[in-house]
Amino acid sequence: MKTIIVENYQKLSAYAAEQIIKEVDGTDHAVLGLATGSTPVGTYEYLRNFPERFKGVTTFNLDEYIGLDKKDTNSYWTFMKEQLFNHVPFQENNIPDGNADDLKAECHRYEAQIRNSGGIDLQILGLGNNGHIGFNEPDTSFDSRTHVVDLSETTRQANARFFQSIDHVPTKAITMGIHTIMESKRILLLVSGKGKSDAVERLLNGRMTEDFPASILHHHPDVTVVIDQERVAGK
Ligand code: GLP
Q: Can 168 be counted among the known catalytic residues?
């Protein structure tokens, strides 16, 4: 695992965006795995300046809440539209359908669609305070594929800032599984935000355990972790 510490959020965003552009440049078909949360917002803002680079690119998002309408301001579909998809013409954008009648079938369909696309070339990840990646909470099996999860109290609290109150935060989500994420050819884990210094310490120096999902990344052959020193140190 390669670790890069950058001074601040702006540098993290520029670094991530440049890696993404490098990945899609010179290919007529690339597959990107995208993340939500506050961390990639600056990266997406940067990418909005280069709409013409993404015409042949297919994207798969990591996760979606269950029970929110697609058009709800807090759905990840709306988030991605506002941050990126409304501004950059991709070939195809995919997000799990958190309102599917048969959620299990939706998980299978999403997995198959990733496989049929040829697999993810570059997956962007954020880091949850409790070590979650996507919405794979602590104690999720490292062998998991796209599945339905019960969101932990810590995660609901962390994400409550976007909702009217914690009672409005959904209790379930669909997420790519840990195994699904690990099949990506390259992974870029972006770490920014107050309160993440313990998670960073555990990621870099802790042992590999299902209790801390991001620890699996040590077993991937091509992972770069980018840490925003200023925000992680809480300055
Ligand atoms: C959510 C998302 C994760 C994201 C995490 C961290 O729970 N499902 O994919 O990495 O939040 O979010 P933030 O970047 O806002 O700290």
A: no
Q: What is the pLDDT of residue 235?
A: 53
Q: Which of 127, 155, 180 to mutate to test the pocket of ligand 1 (most atoms within 8 A of CB)?
A: 127
pLDDT surpassing 60 at residue 199 = yes
Tell me the DSSP string of 90-140.
-SEEE---TT-SSHHHHHHHHHHHHHHTT--SEEEEE--TTS-BTTB-TT-
Over residues 25-33, mean pLDDT: 92
Q: How many independent structural domains does the chain possess? A: 1
Chain centroid to Cα 187, Å, comes to 10
Active site residue 143: no
Domain span including residue 7: 2-232
Beta partners for residue 92, in sequence order: 58
Q: Does 132 qualify as catalytic in the annotation?
A: yes
**100 and 106 Cβ atoms separated by less than 8 Å:** yes
Residues 6+ apart with CB under 8 A from 101: none
The closest-lying atom of ligand 1 relative to the alpha carbon of residue 196 is 16
Q: What is the CATH number of the domain that holds 67?
A: 3.40.50.1360
Residue 14 identity: A
